[in-house]
Amino acid sequence: MQFGSASPPFSSADGTTLSRHLLEKAIRGWLGFALRTTRWRFEATPEARALLLHERGDGTQPGLLVAFWHEALALSPALWWWTEPRNPSMRLHVLISRNNDGRLIARIVTPWRIPPIHGSSDKKGKNKGGAAALRQIRQALAQGHTVAVMPDGPKGPRRVIQPGIIALAEKTGIPILPVGVQCTCLHAPSWDRMIVPLPFGRGRIVCGTPVSVEPGNRDAASQTLTQRLIAVQEEAGTQAATYPDMLATMPSRAVVDGPVHAPVSPHRPKPVGTPIIWSMLTSLLAPGLIAMLRVRVRRGKEIRERTRERLGFTTMRRPDGPLIWMHAASVGETLSIIPVIRAILEKTSLPTVLVTTGTVTAAATLARELPEAMQAGRVLHSFVPLDVPRWIRRFLRHWRPDGLVLTESELWPNMIAACNAAGLPVMLMNGRLSRSALTGWRKLPRMAENMMSALPWIAARSPEDAARFRMLGASNVFCDGDLKTAAPPLAADASVLEAARRAIGARPVWIAASTHPGEEKQVLEAAKILRASYPDLLTIIAPRHPDRGAAIANEAKAAFPADGQPPRRSQDEWPDASAPVWIVDTLGELGVLFRLSQIVFMGNSLIAPDSPIEGGGHNPLEPARLGCAIMTGPAIDNFEETFATLGEAIIVVRSAQDLANKVKALLDDPTRVAALGQAGERVATRDQNLPFRLADLICRTCDCS
Predict the structure, then answer these.
(1) N or C: which end of the chain has fewer CB within 10 A?
(2) Domain co-membership, 549 together with 413
(3) Which residue ranges does the record assign to the DUF374 domain (predicted)?
(4) Inter-residue contact 472 to 452 (CB < 8 Å)
């Protein structure tokens, strides 16, 4: 010890340092104790899990941006502790401000092998570290590290994304993984209502669909990231106690991998009242609905001999034994439930499956995919009765099903109420609820809540959908995957495929599939542009509604007047060596087309500014399962999560010229086409066990296992 020094041996500075050290140690001890004694459940979409665990499959170690709201900062180590044992090569950094609070947090988490990257300012905004932080982040990402960012920090506003993370993702091409974290806690009286964990509680970590930022598309990416962050945080905030049946099967203090699976013992919902106003309204509209059916018959959208099925009548006999009623609105939903139907048919109780659809094309799809089961009477088909109470009751009196399984967004209040009154469980499988649908149902909150409370369970296709269902009052919601990733590849008639290949020969080909009015004009414009570079190019147009074939043929003739009327598949016409366009206006032949060319544009997405069509997209997993490189327009609200899961395997086009440019780039580079196709195929075929899990749950719920 030196005497006569300028400072006493125990100065105020030393006291401050000691106090700070004790404070840090106390906070770290409490936080570590609370987080490690919390019973965590981990949920992630397959693409999120692959990014966290570096399971890309191409040998690379890509960098990753992880985003969570500032309120969950204290819980973020739990994600790291789950990931590190499973991916020892992972290196995590967290972006923290330079202010005093930020430095305190940095000193707390650094001993947990979470080095901070300091950004923001430390002296009244004068010493900004943004540029230096950006360099550090880019360097870390280039090395394959993971960087955690709180996009609404350091000072808010709460849950409002600042532009930095979006700009960073755009410049680096690195996806942003939205993460929600919640547990048994208190909330600090701070601007962000900081979550303070309590020990021996329950917690959930939910990793949603990654967000990729395309150049020049920051606003849309910011909106998407905001929606997904809110969705996963709300999902995580639904406490684990909501799922007692699932928790009963889990070991104490276990960290649960993967998505939340179905409950082992589904509960029976309490009876709910009939939606009086909706019931009266639909009853009053019944004569108008009958007139509408007659119009649909004239347009080819209904089968005249079977329109009485829409009123609940049938000429079929109910078979003996268990009967499970499954409803799928159209072709896409029908294709998605076929693997589940096959799994149900394998049950020892030998249940019969009654499938109702709302369209003729869906009925034809069912007959094509399950011919033997339908011939044997194990699968029956009826057109679904319209949602008029007496028509639904008539249907139920005849069929007496053991339960009803709805698909995606097919929520009909009278149908659900009638089944509930008859004591029949109503389940929702592959549940989908878009933002616009959520907005619509929120205008009828009482009806929506009654309807949700009548369902024993909802199997949502994504955490975002699960969160929206909970906003409407649903309780037993779980997310076990998207059925459309478990469907088999579309079938193809071998003789038709061989005839098409002979007709086309070695010509270059691309396909515009499931197009809607207004899109064919843009496709034909792109085809004209492309013929300048590829004079023998064949453009195949497969409209979503085949009855529009003649109208599209007229548009094609106007676009290519020198080539006359284009061949149409419905007329048994095949393209010759010079035909620029072939119109495949038939049902059930996309499986053939996706085998003729790997370059596919999916329709209902490239909407002209003055078009009355809203768009929404079509299922891109169908071409992805067959290794196609997929293009889409920007109007994909109905399949936003599905397109997002395919990530970089999807090419977005915004005009006819852009479509022509992207098709030409693919025609010029077959290697890229193959790479895009392989990337999409990996995503589209990742979970083949999901149909069997859902089939088990359906049979248990219907008491016919």
Answers:
(1) N
(2) no
(3) 87-158
(4) yes
Paired strand residues for 652? 632
List pLDDT tens digits, range 369-416.
899 999 999 999 999 999 999 999 999 999 999 999 999 988 999 999
Catalytic-labelled residue, pool 235, 333, 408, 589: 333
Q: Which two tokens stand for residue 146?
A: 């993971």
Q: In this structure, are 471 and 552 located in the same domain? A: no
Q: Which residues contact 70 (CB under 8 A, 6 or more apart)?
A: 150, 152, 153, 154, 156, 158, 192, 194
Structural contact between residues 355 and 379, judged by C-beta atoms closer than 8 angstroms? yes
Residue 611 belongs to what domain range?
Answer: 494-684
pTM, whole model, 2 decimals? 0.57
| Dihedrals phi, psi of 426, to nearest 5 degrees | -120, 120
Give the C-alpha separation, 413 to 417, whole Å. Answer: 6
- Residue from 259, 301, 280 nearest 463 by CA: 259
- Note whether 78 and 203 are within 8 A (CB): yes
* Assigned domain for 266 exists: no
76 in the same domain as 187 = yes
DSSP assignment of 334-383 equals: HHHHHHHHHHHHTSTT--EEEEEESSHHHHHHHHHH-HHHHHTTSEEEEE
504 and 551 belong to one structural domain: yes
Beta bridge partners of 405: 326, 427
**Count of domains in the chain?**
3
In whole angstroms, what is the distance from residue 300 CA to residue 295 CA? 9
**Active-site residue 525, yes or no?**
no
Q: Under a CB-based contact definition with an 8 Å cutoff, are residues 266 and 696 in contact?
A: no
Tell whether 142 is covered by a domain: yes
Token couple for 108: 């707390």
